[in-house]
């Protein structure tokens, strides 16, 4: 028997768009929890849902390990976990039920469970760990000490009611909330993620078609900024950072043990602390472990003196920015704290330093008008990114944005998968409009990017004459279908046009 079987409910196979892309990363948050509990003397095992075929494999793992505790510890560094996709929630409910039926004590920790604890308890969880998780889980298991009466009985509430960070049902069935636990501050004290529990070679094979092997790391937890659509159920408004020395030591270990060709830093914001990036760059160069990486950054932070140079010296290959909109009034309504000019300037600085640029774009925010949409499309041409990600505003519990649109939400509150793009509230335009806009913006981007300084029309005409590659055929197809898509989009816009002038509501921070 095993003390703890860790798992998580993000099955890449249940997300068709990302399954096709096939750029998988192990559940880093789950690996941190496993290493933390192992350091406290527990025997741990891992079920990695990322490349699994379905919940049946979790059931097989339960039968194989016969764990006392079955812990769904969601990867809080995976932004899709924060989005609480319906297919993954359904998988989590099935996994909790399977653990309960086998006599294990089901425990769950994650964004969706923190926001919807009663639903997870009804689905079979004995305890919901809210917030960060590691310390609370460790203390919970210490208090239980193997004396939990079993999944079918009432929880020993007297033993755990003073453990902060828990929600569970007491002996009378009433909900017990022990309050939030402060976030960990000394991240350097955490053990290295339990990479030995992962089938690393399976991931290497999955990455083989891309010509290199990428692994994930994280140097921080949380984000201190106030974007009012961004949910922060795990760390709230707090931000804590590992030291550059600690991060570089882990990078050295990863390179020596698994030889990744590339690193994906999963931080909400990489290198926020002044001077952190410069120190990291100096250390990787000094120790001969400069490794290509990608990360997420804010436009305004990239304009700090020396920031882009430090990224380049450290080996940064690509930076993704949350641009969101090319309309300043929408950015202001979002409490974004950045300007359109900063986005364009940061993109040009990065490209000048040889670093590729990705822009995340968000349509459908409160009060968005046709002029705001046009401004965002112009932003793509002005910033000339190397890649874009297009989404629509997504109301998540606990955000000021969610509170403003609460009365307009229907029965459905979550997307099915990452390609859903459904408008979950009564937004400026309809779901069909934004789904068509998504296609138009991507086609425009691909055509303008491929054309470079050449006229897109002339570029595509040459591609049609000499379709020597799949990319050329794709651009020709984009060029031929784009006019029709634009006409359809214009028709949807006329039908959906708001009856009153669009005005973003004043921002109010929670």
Query: What structural class do the secondary elements suggest?
Result: alpha/beta
Extract low-pLDDT stretches: 506-510
Strand order of the largest sheet: 2-1-3-4-5-6-7
**Radius of gyration in whole Å, from Cα?**
24 Å
Classify the beta-strand content into a percent band.
5-15%
Q: Major beta sheet, specifics? A: 7 strands, mixed
Shape: globular
The count of β-strands is 15
Q: Could you give the distance between the termini? A: 46 Å
Tell me the number of helical segments per DSSP (H or I, 4 or more residues long).
21
Question: How would you describe the overall organization of this protein?
Answer:
- The chain has 510 residues and is α/β, with parallel strands linked by helices.
- It contains 21 helices and 15 strands.
- The chain has helices at 16-21, 28-39, 55-65, 79-83, 86-101, 111-115, 117-122, 134-144, 157-160, 200-207, 244-258, 276-286, 299-302, 307-314, 328-333, 340-352, 370-383, 400-405, 431-451, 456-465, 470-496; strands spanning 4-7, 44-46, 69-73, 105-109, 127-129, 166-169, 175-177, 214-217, 220-222, 239-241, 262-265, 293-297, 316-324, 356-363, 387-392.
- It has a seven-stranded mixed beta sheet with strand order 2-1-3-4-5-6-7, sandwiched between helices.
- The chain is globular, with a radius of gyration of 24 Å.
């Amino acid at each position: 028997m095993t003390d703890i079987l860790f798992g998580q409910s993000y099955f890449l196979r249940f997300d068709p768009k990302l399954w096709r892309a096939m750029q998988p990363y192990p559940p880093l948050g789950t690996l941190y929890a496993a290493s933390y509990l192992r350091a406290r003397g527990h025997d741990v095992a891992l079920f990695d849902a990322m490349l699994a075929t379905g919940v049946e494999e979790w059931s097989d793992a339960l039968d194989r390990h016969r764990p006392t505790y079955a812990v769904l510890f969601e990867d809080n560094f995976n932004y899709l976990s924060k989005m609480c996709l319906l297919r993954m929630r359904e998988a989590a409910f099935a996994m909790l039920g399977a653990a309960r039926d086998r006599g294990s004590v089901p425990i769950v920790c994650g964004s969706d469970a923190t926001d919807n604890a009663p639903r997870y308890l009804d689905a079979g969880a004995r305890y919901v760990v809210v917030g960060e998780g590691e310390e609370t889980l460790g203390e919970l298991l210490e208090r239980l000490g193997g004396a939990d009466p079993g999944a079918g009985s009432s929880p020993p509430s007297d033993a755990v009611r003073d453990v902060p960070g828990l929600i569970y049902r007491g002996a009378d069935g009433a909900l017990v909330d022990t309050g939030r636990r402060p976030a960990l501050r000394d991240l350097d004290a955490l053990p290295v993620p339990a990479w030995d529990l992962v089938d690393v070679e399976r991931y290497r094979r999955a990455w083989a078609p891309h010509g290199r092997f990428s692994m994930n790391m994280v140097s921080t937890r949380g984000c201190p900024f106030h974007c009012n659509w961004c949910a922060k159920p795990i760390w709230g408004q707090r931000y804590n950072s590992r030291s550059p020395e600690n991060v570089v030591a882990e990078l050295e270990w990863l390179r020596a043990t698994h030889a990744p060709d590339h690193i994906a830093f999963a931080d909400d914001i990489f290198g926020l602390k002044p001077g952190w990036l410069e120190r990291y760059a100096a250390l990787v160069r000094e120790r001969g472990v400069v490794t290509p990486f990608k990360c997420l950054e804010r436009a305004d932070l990239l304009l700090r003196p020396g920031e882009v140079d430090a990224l380049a010296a450290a080996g940064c290959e690509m930076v993704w920015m949350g641009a969101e909109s090319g309309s300043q009034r929408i950015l202001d309504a979002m409490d974004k704290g950045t300007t359109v000019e900063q986005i364009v300037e940061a993109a040009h600085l990065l490209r000048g330093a040889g670093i590729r640029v990705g822009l995340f774009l968000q349509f459908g925010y409160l009060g968005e008008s046709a002029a705001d949409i046009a401004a965002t499309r112009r932003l793509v041409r002005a910033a000339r990114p190397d890649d874009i990600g297009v989404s629509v505003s997504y109301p998540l519990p606990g955000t000021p944005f969610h509170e403003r649109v609460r009365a307009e939400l229907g029965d459905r509150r979550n997307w099915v998968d990452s390609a859903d793009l459904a408008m979950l509230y009564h937004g400026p335009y309809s779901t069909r409009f934004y789904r068509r806009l998504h296609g138009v913006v991507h086609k425009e981007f691909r055509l303008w990017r491929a054309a470079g300084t050449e006229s897109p029309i002339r570029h595509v005409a040459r591609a049609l004459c000499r379709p020597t590659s799949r990319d050329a055929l794709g651009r020709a197809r984009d060029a031929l279908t784009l006019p029709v898509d634009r006409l359809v989009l214009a028709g949807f816009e006329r039908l959906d046009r708001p009856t009153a002038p669009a005005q973003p509501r004043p921002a109010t921070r929670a």
